[in-house]
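Annual report, structural modelling task.

Input specification for the magnesium ion complex:
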Amino acid sequence: MADIVCVIGNKGGTGKTTLSHMLCQGLGMAGQRSVCVLTDTFREPLDPKGRPYLIADARAGAALHKVVAKIRGLHAWMGVIDGGGNRTEMDHHLYGLADLVLLPFRDSHEDIRTVIRDLEMFPRAYAVPSQWPSWYRGTADATVREMLRPYLDRVLDPVFAHSSAKLLLQRKAPERIPEPLQKLCTNTARQVLELLQIDVPWHAAPLAEFPNASREPDLRFAMRQ
Ligand SMILES: Nc1ncnc2c1ncn2[C@@H]1O[C@H](COP(=O)(O)OP(=O)(O)O)[C@@H](O)[C@H]1O
Ligand SMILES: [Mg+2]
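The model returned the following structure:
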């Protein structure tokens, strides 16, 4: 049966939509089939053409149930549901049906306070540092270590900020995925596959299309040690 990953959190702009697409892109690059599910009524579905994953529109009330049931029935697929934000009821619903729940948050006290509330509310969920500073990450990491101390085992490796991230959210798929973005996508997918204990033969991935895709994991999040 397919696994369902939900990207939620009671705050807009944290990077839920970007993370959902990065994850699907990374999964696709690894040869893992996935569907990115849109639930945000303020967003239009993106064009799936040229993407290594499918896109499903579950904005209408009953559509989510149908889409999830359909994905569940697919063997060796993964559903990634982009929660939309500021919708506590929807977040609870998605939490209930997910095999893995991701809560992106940015390097700000406000985001961290919100993610703490969400981690309390959703005890199986993992927090994902999102749009993380890569050059001067020391300060950001220190803030997390201090404010999220009781939850550090539930904080995943960061998804670093990169200007190319927005390419994935263009309606038409980008013709080329820049190498840094490939790496962000690959690392995101690798963490998720690890958490779900899914063994994807990375060497068998269709890397020909992505000659520069990294096969090695990035640095583990320093705060885990
Ligand atoms: N890793 C990243 N690097 C750079 N910009 C990012 C990254 N993730 C998200 N963003 C930017 O942050 C903004 C909010 O992201 P989005 O995914 O739409 O958040 P949400 O879906 O939670 O509202 C967008 O402008 C997006 O391009
Ligand atoms: Mg969004």
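Residues 203-225 have pLDDT under 50 and may be disordered.
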